[in-house]
UniProtKB/TrEMBL annotation:
Database matches in PROSITE patterns: ANK_REP_REGION, ANK_REPEAT
Presence of keyword Cell membrane: yes
Gene Ontology biological process: calcium ion import across plasma membrane
Chief subcellular location: membrane
Recorded catalytic activity of this chain's protein: Ca(2+)(in) = Ca(2+)(out)
Protein name: Ion transport domain-containing protein
Domain Ion transport span(s) in chain numbering: 433-608
Any one GO cellular component localisation term in the record: plasma membrane
SMART domains cross-referenced by the UniProt entry: ANK
């Protein structure tokens, strides 16, 4: 019997030893906890103080001399089991359980990372300091929260008495650490135990803002669902919304709902635009970008269509957008008309040798002065914009580098992942350059300016050398091309008008498709041009020269008159072969491919026509805003802070919403419940394995009296071991009832989702907004389980008198009788 119990004890010890350092040695997003937190580091005075010694590098010759070295030894030898009696012996001999390593960490820091809770309880019972902070201020609770060890976090708070709001040297709480390491389970536990969700670190960042800055989307989404404020600013004026838009657009879209409140009872809607347009002038030296800047920079079409952003664009358009756009359109229209009139006048035949005749040509001089003045003004504005863009980018890079370095000095040597992330961010700043020439319209501006310069130079040469008629011809040709580009340039400022914006975007996208088509078309055009020149070059009238031949081949693509009869008379066989194949390839294949590309582009842009128009308008507004004086900008900032906090407008309660959005919300909630269920099932698999272990031990009969002397100590030891093992068994059955109840709840939720989908298929159009908690699902099982006496007393139930179950989206049930 003793051997069998020893076998069972051995199996439990192996399971617990594996669970101690393997099952919890993990972290979210596929990262091991060792990548987040390396562990303890032994003190060695002779080592370089700047050198980080990993646990694998610590040798352990002979028995451990301290508890700290013993745990470092166990970290190195993961297969070795912990000997709690040895720890007791070391404590009795005077070993310090709160001995620190070179960075001020104690054994409990390592245990909080991945060891079993029983080990932590053992150490705390022996006076291990649960609130012991290392040299950087990190407590064991910070470690457990960062590696997403939710059970350890719960134990340290409830049983160990850990300070839930303990701060590091960087003023970061355990909730900050859970958020910035995407430890979702730890965030839930900390919030459930009343951790301060609005605590600020050394840069006045909340846990949500820290998660957004470090691109921890799951933790950020959870904090937003828990109603954390997304409109906060740090001590540099950096908005949390800006970081959300930059790193996690779907979460940013969810966060924007905080700034839009509908008061149905009073028919009012409130827009907190002051939180979306923060006032950065109060922060000295701040180069923080606004959320709208980040939306335009990353072209987030979904976010720009949010009601809050739409209202922000509308307010800015009324404040300064429409007047500035009207002024720029008028200015450019005057410029275009002036150059157009001069171009037409330059093409008129000269009646005299002098280029100008006064006073008849005074109007031309006036137009030249106006055109040159406006052109010079706009060129100076372009140089000013280039200089300001480079200066602004330089200041932003310096500011951003300084902010990253502030976080870098609080990085723990045994937490390498955070330091590597910040160093990579500093290195990436060198790759960031001014975005002036990334805007196509800025490049187009300079093309127009160079063409105008060519017009001016050729006109001066034409006036100077009047005897050269070719110079006048070149001048007129360049002028005619320049006028085309001048009129196209008007679209740059017209794109801010929402009626015209989508069509201008279409033209931009179409140009990209045309370039793709020209590459494919050139693959056929060039070899066929060579073939046509070899066979018909100089032999037919429309191919007497290379340029005539190239244009004639292009006319084949357009199925125009390309002189087939002349080619047939020269070489009938090759005329059929070359004209027939090129006609099929270019006119049928290539042209239809181009039409398909353009149709696809048109459909994509037109489907997002409203979003594209808003994006163009926002882009223009940002350019105008950058050119505003400090006085005007301060005036508009004051307006947003005083009159838009909130901006209250009338709300039409009869508006309809798309039912598909409600389906998405219900589906996400059911998915979360299923994830919890799967996690519970995984844990129960291990518990079920231990539950089956006692059944493998054969039942023992009562021992018969034996003449041999009974070893009473052995029997007592065996009974004690049995009692210890049987203490585990009740825990293995504890979660079965919870699992059954969870499955029943999930069944009801799936029935609810099925009903929603069936209703959506029957009526796919938009319907008035409904309350999901009032969706009724008939339960057949509920009817079958009704009391038989009630059925006999009332007779058969009619179709209108049945028991129903109302199921809401979080699993509560209410019985209703009709």
């Amino acid at each position: 019997m003793e051997d069998k119990v020893s076998w069972l004890q051995n199996q439990c010890d192996k399971y617990l030893a594996a669970l101690t350092r393997s099952n919890f040695d993990k972290a979210t997003s596929g990262r091991s906890s060792s990548e987040i937190y390396i562990g303890l580091s032994i003190k060695q005075e002779e080592d370089d103080p700047n050198k980080v010694q990993l646990p694998e590098e610590v040798s352990s010759p002979g028995p451990p001399t301290s508890i700290l070295k013993y745990f470092i030894h166990l970290t190195k030898n993961v297969d070795e089991q912990i000997d709690l009696r040895l720890i007791d012996q070391m404590i009795s001999k005077g070993a310090d359980i709160n001995e620190t390593d070179r960075y001020g960490q104690i054994v409990l820091h390592q245990v909080a990372k991945s060891w079993q809770i029983d080990v932590a309880q053992f150490l705390i019972e022996r006076k291990a300091d649960v609130n012991k902070a290392d040299d950087f201020g990190k407590t064991p609770l910070h470690v457990a929260a960062a590696v997403d060890y939710a059970e350890m976090v719960t134990f340290l708070i409830k049983e160990g008495g850990a300070n839930i709001n303990a701060v590091t040297k960087g003023k970061q709480t355990p909730l900050h650490y859970a958020a910035k390491h995407d430890a979702v389970n730890s965030v839930k536990v900390l919030i459930a135990h009343n951790a301060e969700a609005y605590s600020r670190d050394h840069k006045q960042r909340t846990p949500l803002q820290l998660a957004a800055e470090l691109d921890r989307s799951e933790a950020a989404r959870l904090l937003i669902n828990l109603k954390s404020d997304a409109g906060v600013l740090d001590n540099t004026g950096q908005s949390c919304m800006t970081l959300l838009v930059m790193n996690m657009p779907p979460v940013a879209l969810l966060a924007l709902d905080q700034f839009f409140i509908k008061d149905r009872a009073n028919r009012r809607q409130h827009f907190y635009l002051n939180l979306v347009q923060p006032r950065t002038t109060d922060f000295s030296g701040s180069q923080a970008k606004s959320p709208l800047e980040m939306i335009v920079q990353n072209r987030q079409l979904d976010i720009i269509m949010h009601p809050v952003i739409q209202k922000l664009i509308e307010v800015k358009w009324k404040l300064f957008g429409r007047t500035s756009v009207a002024f720029m359109l008028t200015l450019n229209l005057v410029l275009i008309l002036s150059w157009t009139a001069l171009g037409i006048a330059s093409s008129l035949p000269r009646t005299e040798e002098a280029p100008y005749k006064f006073p008849e040509d005074c109007w031309r001089i006036i137009l030249i002065v106006i055109a040159l003045g406006l052109t010079l003004y706009q060129i100076l504005e372009e140089f000013k914009e280039i200089y300001q863009a480079k200066k602004r980018m330089k200041r932003w890079k310096e500011w951003r580098k300084k902010e990253l370095e502030k976080d870098l000095k609080y990085c723990h040597p045994m937490w390498p992942e955070e330091k590597e992330y910040l160093q990579k961010g500093i290195e990436d700043l060198n790759k960031v350059h001014s975005g002036y020439f990334r805007d196509f319209w800025n490049i187009f501006d300079w093309i127009v300016y160079f063409l105008l310069l060519a017009v001016i130079v050729t006109h001066i040469a034409d006036i100077t050398v009047q005897s050269n008629t070719d110079m006048h011809t070149h001048h007129v040709r360049i002028f005619s091309v320049t006028i085309i580009f001048l009129w196209l340039r008007l679209m740059k400022h017209a794109r801010a008008i929402r009626l015209l914006g989508p069509f201008i975007v279409m033209l931009e996208k179409i140009m990209v498709d045309v370039v793709k088509f020209l590459f494919l078309y050139g693959e056929f055009y060039i070899p066929y041009a060579c073939a046509f020149w070899i066979i018909f070059g100089g032999k037919v009238p429309n191919m007497a020269s290379v340029d005539q031949m190239l244009f004639a081949i292009f006319r084949i693509t357009l199925v125009d008159d390309y002189g087939f009869s002349d080619m047939y008379n020269t070489d009938a066989v090759m005329a059929y072969i070359l004209c027939g194949t090129f006609l099929g390839i270019s006119s049928i294949l290539c042209i239809n491919l181009l039409i398909a590309l353009l149709a696809d582009t048109f459909q994509r842009v037109y489907d997002n026509a409203t979003a594209n128009a808003a994006m163009q308008q926002a882009s223009t507004l940002l350019q105008i805003e950058e050119g505003l004086s400090k006085k005007r900008r301060s005036k508009y900032d004051k307006y947003f802070q005083d009159d838009c906090s909130p901006l209250t407008l009338f709300y039409d309660d009869d508006l309809t919403v798309n039912q598909e959005d409600d389906l998405k919300k219900v589906t996400i909630q059911i998915k979360d419940e299923l994830d919890k269920l799967m996690e519970m099932l995984k844990k129960n698999n291990v518990q079920q394995l231990l539950n089956d272990m006692p059944s493998k031990i054969p039942k023992t009969e009562t021992p018969k009296p034996s003449p041999k002397k009974t070893n009473r100590n052995a029997v007592a030891r065996t009974e004690a071991q049995q009692q210890e093992i049987l203490k585990i068994l009740p825990q293995l059955f504890a979660s079965q009832q919870e699992q059954r109840e969870t499955l029943l709840q999930m069944n009801q939720k799936l029935l609810t989702l099925e009903t929603l989908i069936l209703e959506f298929e029957r009526s796919p159009v938009s319907v008035p907004e409904v309350d999901l908690e009032k969706i009724s699902v008939q339960s057949i099982e509920q009817v079958q389980e009704m009391d038989q006496s009630a059925v006999s007393a009332h007779g058969h139930l009619s179709a209108d008198f049945q028991s129903h179950v109302t199921v809401d989206i979080i699993g509560r049930t209410r019985h209703l009788n009709f």
